[in-house]
Amino acid sequence: MRWLKFVIIISLCLFGIYSAMMNFVDESKSFTHQSEIDYPIDKVFPQFNNLQNFAAWNDYFTGKEDMTYSFFTPYEGVGSAMKFSDKKNDESGDLFIRYSRVNRTLHYQLFEGDNDNPYLIDINFKPSGNRTKMFWNIHTPKRSYLERSLNLIAEDFFVNSIDKSMKNLYQILGNKVDRDQKLASIKYDSIMIENREGALLLGVNVSTRNTKDILFKNVLMNHGKVVNYVRSDLGKKDDEFGIPVLITNPANLKDKEISYFYGVPLSKRISVSDNNFSFQTLNASKVYYIYYQGNYNNRIKNIQELLKKAKKDTLRNGQLMEEFLEEPADNQDVKLKLSLPVYR
Predict the structure, then answer these.
(1) Which top-level group of life is the source organism from (predicted)?
(2) Based on the domain organization, do 156 and 305 belong to the same domain?
């Protein structure tokens, strides 16, 4: 009985000391941090302004293996939002972009769990030649009296996470630069021949009106739908799936309605619970292909060149494949690899 009284007294003393110390700890905390990366602003800012990109390298997310994500339109800029959850470790939250000034400023709000008070994260970008400086201003949420001790370690936690994130981002941008250099060496508008390997695609079957105003917007919507599902629901990283491809019948490109399959290559068939998604197999084949850069609606001329080439060589053709070599975006030119399987 004496031991129980002793434990209770010690516990009350420790609680009293803790409570007294918390009187000197602010209910929220603000701090700044500066980071720098050896890439120009036009390469860096899109990695922050698109939450799908952001989650791929930010240590806050990449350090948690069981995290799942949902992304909501618009996928970049003001109004972008994502929800994250790790049921195994009982973690969840939401991230929003509240303000975006291209290549200059971003304001985020980060909510953890059921807390209605967010972290406020403001980043100012300053270009410096081929380098980019970032000035982080972080304001922690107001905490209850018993939780204020978290503010004592908040700055160290965020600074360490930012530094790790910059290393991850540097590696990702390095891979992108290599890819950009390969894209820069592409010869456009020339028909070439290759033996294409087979592939397994996961995607959606789509029918839509075939007009300049509607078709590309429909493609963008389904691109986001497929890539988000593979990334968030299936937990695949960017290096675990291939370049998105659109498959359609080239004979129907002038019809008022057009049907197509939009998917991404996966290494193997996996269980898919959403009935909107299905697998489609691409057989190995000989293909005529041509690279195209420009407005999506103007690609028809290049497709016609492929069809003429096949007809001239007295070959039959299969389904047209349109591969997006860069992430498609509204009001921007596309870079496509247009491929037409041919056979006797």
Answers:
(1) Bacteria
(2) no
